[in-house]
Amino acid sequence: MEPVAVNAGIMAFMVFSGAIIVLGLFLAGVHVMPEPEKAVATVSVVCKVAGIGELIGAVLLLTFSPLGEPVSLFLGTLIGFFGLLFLITAWVLEKGGDLRPFGTYLLFVAVALIIYGSFAGMVPGMGELAALLFLVAVACILSCVGTWGWSPAMGKLGGWLLVIVGIWGIRFWAMDLFAGSIKVMLGG
Questions:
Q1: Which domains does the chain have, with CATH numbers?
Q2: CB 116 within 8 A of CB 133
Q3: Are 79 and 16 within 8 A, CB to CB?
């Protein structure tokens, strides 16, 4: 196992967790700044950094295959997918305008995550990841409903689901870190 690649996988999950919590709170309407345009700019920067971090993690997972080829390929493409999603989200927030096309894009994301989750559910030991992906898909669908203005309350619920996903994601990287990857980082 390549230590750099293992750490990149953990880094990608850490970045994902933090960014999805920030984005979820934003979509839920929780703004810690009195001026909404500053909140948009901050969330945009968080999404950019997350997108870049996810793409770096994906490249390293796909290049070094530290988890074996099938798992590294699956997780690397999934992490890369989220990297692109974060970058697109940052761009949409930065440019402003009508969010309905972005909501439609979230429907595509939901379908892709349902497919990923279905495949993950077939692999022994990946049931929790499958459940997590299905929850993100539901959050994307609810957020789409919110961006189209059909039900702002459902859009906020989608944001809160993303916060739950982020907290759940912390469990993934923390378990991996404490279950053995720390030995690799320390050279043991």
A1: 3-185 (1.25.40.600)
A2: yes
A3: yes
